[in-house]
Amino acid sequence: MKPDSSAKDVCFLLVSALSGANGEDEYTYWRTDPVTRQQLLCNRCPPGSRLRAHCTRSSQTECAPCGAGLFTEFWNYIPDCLRCDTCSDHQTMRVVRPCNGSVNTLCECKAGFYWDEHFCRRHSTCKPGHGVKASGTPHKDTVCELCADGHFADVTQENTTCVTHSACEDHKLLLLPGSRWHDSVCATCDHHDHTPKGWEDLFKPVLSGLHVQFGIPIERMQKLVNRRLRRGSGRRNGKRAAPQHLQRNDGTSEEELLNLPSILEETHQSLLADRIARKILRFQQHCRSREL
User: Fold this and answer.
1) Contact criterion met (CB below 8 Å) for 51 and 36
2) Residues 149 and 69 occupy one common structural domain
3) Could you tell me if 244 and 273 lie in one domain?
4) Helix 204-214 and helix 218-230, axial crossing angle in degrees, nearest 10
5) pLDDT tens digits, residue range 47-80?
6) For residue 154, what are the domain limits?
7) Can you give the residue ranges of the TNFR-Cys domain (predicted)?
8) Quick one: DSSP state of residue 122?
9) Same domain, yes or no, for 147 and 237?
């Protein structure tokens, strides 16, 4: 990758295109003597140098070395060396090969970035439910794909591939089926899995995923779920009624309208906590029925 070097590449291509015409090769070129009009076959200057003086009937081509920060990459007869490229954005680019007079600087995007025509762009992050199909390189962006049924990409890990949902071991039961962004949650009817600490450990990947997707603090979601588990007997049957502040009220004040975004966010968290609590309560009820 050589940013801003297109004009230099064209120049070199024009020089190279002259090779092979009328008996000349990459090391020589034809020139018409301005005095005698005689055709002279002159030597080109080697990489790392430039033309100082054309050949004459009595002397060969004179070349001069390129100075600091300049280069020529091919045998040539250009009057001035070319300026070396610089890796301008040091935060996103690195020098793969420094300019040394005979080759130009070679720049490359740093890890986590790829070259997008004019600058280095950060690799895309796969959306929840999508896994990496092809990892990003310094030259290409990450390619993502939607996880197929029965597969998931861990949303708490950046850019992972889709993998198959785990199957519950023989002594465990399915507590929460896996989705495209989290694995299956399996549990036993052991008393530990029914304690607040027990279910928090079981659902930690799910709560972490909710935190990544919606910014819900894990500790807050744990408190919301525990609160519902303590009131669990009234939640097992029927659906949760809409919160009072979301019920129809023709006399809604301006202050209530301004608080609507935070109210909706709180309601969303409450609905998620309800869903998790219902899963746990149903599982506990199932375990109790097996003991009878």
Assistant:
1) no
2) no
3) yes
4) 120
5) 999 999 999 989 999 999 999 999 999 999 999 9
6) 123-163
7) 65-107
8) E
9) no
CA-CA distance, 243 to 269, in Å (whole number)? 12
Residues 180 and 279 both lie in one domain? yes
Q: φ and ψ at 274, to 5 degrees?
A: -60, -45
Same-domain pairing of 17 and 60: yes
Does one domain contain both 173 and 265?
A: yes
Give the Cα-Cα-Cα angle 126, 219, 238 (nearest 5 degrees).
90
One domain, residues 43 and 3: yes
Q: Which positions ≥6 away from 269 have C-beta within 8 Å?
A: 214, 216, 220, 221, 224
Please say whether the dihedral angle defined by the alpha carbons of residues 262, 268, 274 and 277, taken in this order, is positive or negative. negative
The verdict on pTM exceeding 0.70 is no
Q: Of 119, 152, 175, which one is at a domain's C-terminal end? A: 119
CA-based nearest residue to 84, from 145, 144, 4 = 4
Whole-angstrom distance, CA of residue 72 vs CA of residue 104: 8
Q: For residues 151 and 162, what is the distance between their CA atoms, to the nearest angstrom?
A: 6
Element (H, E) at 163: strand 163-164
Q: What is the CATH number of the domain that holds 149?
A: 2.10.50.10
In which residue are the tokens 């502040």 written?
A: 245
pLDDT of residue 264: 55
Instruction: Decide which of 119, 148, 173 is a domain's last residue.
Output: 119
Q: Which residues face 42 on adjacent strands?
A: 29
pLDDT per residue as tens digits for the range 74-132: 999 999 999 999 998 888 999 999 999 999 999 999 999 999 888 999 999 999 999 99
How many domains would you assign to the chain? 3
Give the tokens for residue 176: 């929460």
Q: 106 with 6, same domain?
A: yes
Tell me which amino acid residue 97 is.
Answer: R
Phi, psi of 21 (to 5 degrees): -85, 130
Which one has a higher pLDDT value, 217 or 151?
151
The conformational region for residue 264 under phi > 0 = left, psi -120 to 50 = alpha, else beta, is alpha
